[in-house]
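Morning, I've got a small favour to ask if you have a moment. I owe you a coffee for this, so here goes:
>
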Amino acid sequence: MKKVAIIGGTGFEKLNFLSGTKTLKIKTPFGDPSSELHTGQYNGLKIVHIARHGKDNSISSAMVNFKANMLALKELGCTHIISTTSCGSLREEICPGEFIVFDQFIDFSRHRFTTIFQESQPGEFRYTPMAYPFSDELRDNLIEAAVTLGLTVHTKGTVITIDGPRFSTRAESQLYRMWGADIINMTTAPEVILANELAIPMAVIALCTDFDSWRTDIKPPSLEDIREIIDQHGAKLLELLKISLTNI
């Protein structure tokens, strides 16, 4: 039976559309997850929700225990993962308030040990294929849901993940554009790497909140501006999730 995990990013610490909810505290070999896990149902589909940054959004991107979060979802029997996130745009055509469904990533985090497999048995090799890191089935599902709602959605994009929690300098932002990245965030690479190691299909729906730091004709993004975009478009993302879950 399918059980879908939803990883809620900033602004999506709670899901108000689940029925029969229960709260679980999970211990893992890597420590405690970011938050309690909430199980419930939506249209008969089993759902597990976790708040990536904690229930009060107090955990910075640099301090998220990604391994504990993902292993907890695995232990609860999740068969699919949908992750929500905000991101900065590195392209003129991707604007604040629009949605993106990633198809590739560049991991530029430098201080994260991003593997479940910390040790191997003699003669055992732990190399995980990552050429196509995101589930096409889940990606198509999210794109269809966005189109159904009449939202502007970019059907592919390469996200570069940095450690955070600081934003990029202009020089860094320009460099990422030269590398071919389309958007930037601080959480996707660890999560999707671990999901692939755990053999759980995953897709990400992202809300663009700003133009990062590369543009010189506008002011650099501020926390207030980003929060305003999330508040303006959060309800749309929740509706998108509901349609996506119904299609699953």
Q: What stands out?
A: The mean pLDDT is 93. The longest strand covers residues 80-89.
